[in-house]
């Protein structure tokens, strides 16, 4: 298993007062298991984390995990998940992970944050 952590900063992003200044935006965790499961979790406390791709869906299906609304997009062996929980905005992308494993991951995140 391998894991990497990094942060993303943006230059003057949406802040006219910080034109040309870098501002911390996201914390990102990249994990990969020995059997090929990949998970990227991005966190931001003031808006949705920055993505390098975007899915346009005017009426996305919203699931409910532990009482929290969660938007899940699935394609082939990949899931993209967006939700806000306890004041933190999450953007999660998985590859080679089943839906049951994804549900378990989300439930674990939500139970750990409260502790």
Give a verbal description of the structure.
- By secondary structure, this protein is mainly beta.
- It has a single domain, classed as 3-Layer(aba) Sandwich (Protein Transport Mog1p, Chain A).
- It contains 1 helix and 7 strands.
- Strands 1-2-3-7-6-5-4 form a 7-stranded antiparallel β-sheet.
- It is globular and about 45 Å long.
Summarize the structure.
With about 120 residues, this protein is mainly β.
Topology of helices and strands:
Elements: E1 2-11, E2 22-32, E3 38-44, E4 62-65, E5 68-75, E6 78-85, E7 88-95, H1 99-114
Antiparallel strand pairs: 1-2, 2-3, 3-7, 4-5, 5-6, 6-7
- The chain-level structural class is mainly beta
| Secondary-structure element string | EEEEEEEH
| Oligomerization | single chain
Low-confidence stretches: none
* Mean of all residue-level pLDDT scores: 85
| Helical residues, percent | 10-25%
Strand content: over 45%
In what order do the strands lie side by side in the largest sheet? 1-2-3-7-6-5-4
Tally of strands: 7
Number of helices: 1
Compute the CA-based radius of gyration.
15 Å
Q: What gap, in angstroms, lies between the N and C termini?
A: 26 Å
Number of domains: 1
